[in-house]
Amino acid sequence: MYAECGFVEFAWKVFVQIPQPNVVAWNLVLIAYFRGSDVSGADKVFGLLSFRNLTTWNVMLAGYTKAGGLERAEGLFLQMPSRDDVSWSTMIVEFSHNGCFDEVLGVFRELIGSRSKPNEVSLTVALSACAQAGAFKFGMCGNVLMARLVFERMLGKKTIASWTSMFAGLAMQGYGEEVIKYFHEMEESGTRPDGVTFISVLYDACSHAGLVEQGHELFSKMTETYDIEPTIEHYGCMVDLYGRAGQLRKACNFVVQMPVPPNAVIWRTLLGACCFFGDIEMAEQVNKRLSDLDPDNCGDHVLLSSIYAFAGKWKDVAMVRRSMAEKNMKKIPGWSMIEIDKVMYSFVAGDKRNEITEEAYNKLSEIMLKLKVKGGYIPEVGSVLHDIEEEEKEDTMSKHSEKLAVAFGMARLCKGSTIRIVKNLRVTAVNVPSILIEELNDTVLCNRRPGPGTIKTIVERLSIGTIL
């Protein structure tokens, strides 16, 4: 009882009165220390144990993960003499929560190779990691028709986890309206949505598909019909929904009227929308709020610098960058990943060249040349530093990580294949042109599925990092 309530001192006083404590009692003491957020105390108790069963190891593993000690959890996991479903699932879930999708797939491979079998939790998380990492061949994700077929043929009543997974998968491929349709089917089936379900539908489906009215209705239904108290994540979904649709004033008013104090993530979401739509005045106001909440965040300075650059306000750009230099802030480089023959390749802008990146650079140079000669492409370099030569600006624009990943895919995959790129956890799908590079504009699959654009529009959107 004391352990469950987090009263470490009382739990220990009772424990030391036990004449011969067994392993169950020792495990309960470990739980008490973790419940009391005393990780060092748990470490000391663990060191005193002469006999440890599997539950003991799992308690330590779960305790480390809840305390945010990913490295310590990983080290303990490697030391475990044996593992069960709980052990594997705990590690897979923790890696996934921290965005370590390569590690998720690595642990899952190890699980498959062991005597254990994946349970529903480990399998679901691994499939989710495949989807987020673009590992289509490894997880057979990204195929909407196949996912729908499997989902429709599930026996018995579908759980809320199944429905939510289907929502996330459809939304990631741009089928926002399909998600809304399935959501209503879920309601008709008698399955009650929870807070996680609404986050998935609001953010993954409504926000990325521009379904503002539907999103507003669902947010109202969450409180009025299902009596679910919105969390800061739900409010963030609504800010993102309005912001992506360009309704900046509505998004700002929503933030101001929130019943809970907006955190830095909320304001940062609004700042990103201001930068995307070029509202300098609002961006400056939002940045002031962020300066109070999180003054040393590099990303906020980069966003503000970008909007100043697009507006040609180079003095302001210099001021922001000078501030970053004074605070010793460094921009986190963009990265992109692509899966080829079940192997994930990662590209980072400006990274050191090796055999893989050299192949990507060579193919990219070939593509850019064809775009200029056959497509009449002229790079848009207005947002690049104004104090370098035009040729250097053009070279800078051509080294974005997603361009390298696309080029590498075109070099390695056969014509007619599909290239899937992950950039900041979003998937970009591009079909390799069958004859000319210029046909790229007809083969890009966009999340919002706009009409066919020109080559120049697509290349420019890729060059500034827009996720298609």
What does this structure look like?
This protein has 468 residues and is mainly alpha-helical. Helix content is 62%, strand content 6%. The chain contains 25 helices and five strands. It has helices at residues 2-5, 8-15, 23-35, 39-48, 54-66, 70-79, 85-97, 101-113, 120-133, 136-139, 144-152, 160-172, 176-188, 195-209, 212-224, 232-244, 248-256, 264-277, 280-293, 298-310, 314-326, 355-375, 390-397, 401-412, 455-463, and strands at 335-340, 343-348, 418-423, 426-431, 444-445. It has a five-stranded antiparallel beta sheet. A hairpin with a 2-residue loop joins strand 3 (418-423) and strand 4 (426-431). The longest helix is centred in the last third of the chain and has 21 residues, at 355-375. It starts with a helix and ends in a 5-residue tail after the last helix. Keywords: Repeat. InterPro entries: DYW_dom, E_motif, PPR_At4g14850-like_plant, PPR_rpt, TPR-like_helical_dom_sf. It comes from Solanum commersonii.
